[in-house]
Amino acid sequence: MSGDGMTSCERARGPSLAGDGTGDDDRLADWRAREARLHLVLPYCGLLVGSLLATFAPAPGGLPLAPTLVVAGASAAWIAWFHTLHPQWRERRRLMAGYYVGLLAFAAVLVCASPWYGFFAWIGFLHAFALLSGGWRFVGMGCTAVLVGTAQGGGLPRSWSHFTLWLVLVLFNLVVAGAVSWLSYVGEREEAKRKRLVAELAAANQQLAETVRENEGLHAQLITQAREAGVLDERQRMAQEIHDTLAQGLTGIITQLEAAEQTRDRSADWRRHVDNALALARESLTEARRSVRALRPEPLETARLPDALSELGERWSALHGVAANVNTTGTPRPLHPEIEVTLLRAAQEALSNVARHAAASRVGLTLSYMSDIVTLDVRDDGSGFDVTDRSATPDQDGSYGLTAMRQRVTRVGGQLAVESEPGAGTAVSASVPALPGAAA
Q1: CATH architecture assignment, domain 303-440
Q2: Domain residue extents for the chain
Q3: What sections of the protein cross the membrane (predicted)?
Q4: CA 440 to mean position of chain CA atoms
Q5: Phi then psi for 359, rounded to 5 degrees?
Q6: pLDDT tens digits for range 297-335
Q7: Which uninterrupted H or E stretch holds 235?
Q8: Is 0.70 topped by the overall pTM?
């Protein structure tokens, strides 16, 4: 659910961002296209306006009309060839520099022929910024400001007062054109920065979407692994519970029924063994049902761990006729339920091993409470075995169950130690962390 929800949010967010950026880019592209078309038309409009005014309102002291119109036509052809008909040449900076020099030359001749061509010379501001690069832009704008100021002043200065006016006009045009050009340059830089940020955002958005898809795959994989691990853990738990309850109970029942078979001529002993077998069957059935429901063993539900171990020792001793002495050292205190279950199951398994394999006459269980660990020691004076001989401790068919006991103890962070020698008995020690539990 979380993976799908997050994916939906990211998908909803991604197109929204992309859509906003696309709309702005489209509007900006339309504006740029209109501006480009206007720049294509303006030079010819300037030539047309200058030629009409030079024809119908000629300025005194200018060149004859015919050569002026010829120069105007040549200027139009120059612009058409280098700028209008071959737009791909605008990226060739050296060629555009030559074109701009020619444009200024035509504008200078036309302004000298008639001041009305200042309308055309003004185009130099636009083309300087669009076609030149670096500091050459400002050089081109300076030259254009001189031409426009000359046209506005009625021609080249012929006196000191006229020169002052001409200089003011040149400086005014230069300042205005420089300010507009600088603002346009700053705007272009900001636009380029915005485009770069939008591109980075789009790349980050795409990477985020890919990461979300990867996370979806990992999430599904983790769910599958968690499900498989849960099934495996539950299978292991049930197998261990079956070993600790049903297997031990069935072993005890078989032992009691075999003893009853041997004492069928003695009704009192026969009845005792049969009653013991029935009690073990009922107890095993109860524990099996509790295992299925993942409940704690019944002895720990009704008593504390030391009392449960004492009760276990008494019942085991009564069933097998072997003395079992249970002692507790230290101060008993409530432990984590898993810790208490581990110690109780370890005691049950150790006593089951003694009953099946040790042929012991005496068993001792000692539960020791220490500051950070709790230890359960189970000792018997039975036949013992060689712990270094793997064949002497089988864990498959009717085994001593040491592997299952060690796995259970290790699972809670504890350790299991086994000491034994043939003919010298066996000592099993389970040490687990003293994790506190709820007070009874």
Answers
A1: 2-Layer Sandwich (3.30)
A2: 2-211, 303-440
A3: 41-59, 65-85, 97-119, 125-151, 163-185
A4: 44
A5: 55, 45
A6: 666 777 889 999 998 899 888 888 899 999 999 999 999
A7: helix 160-242
A8: no
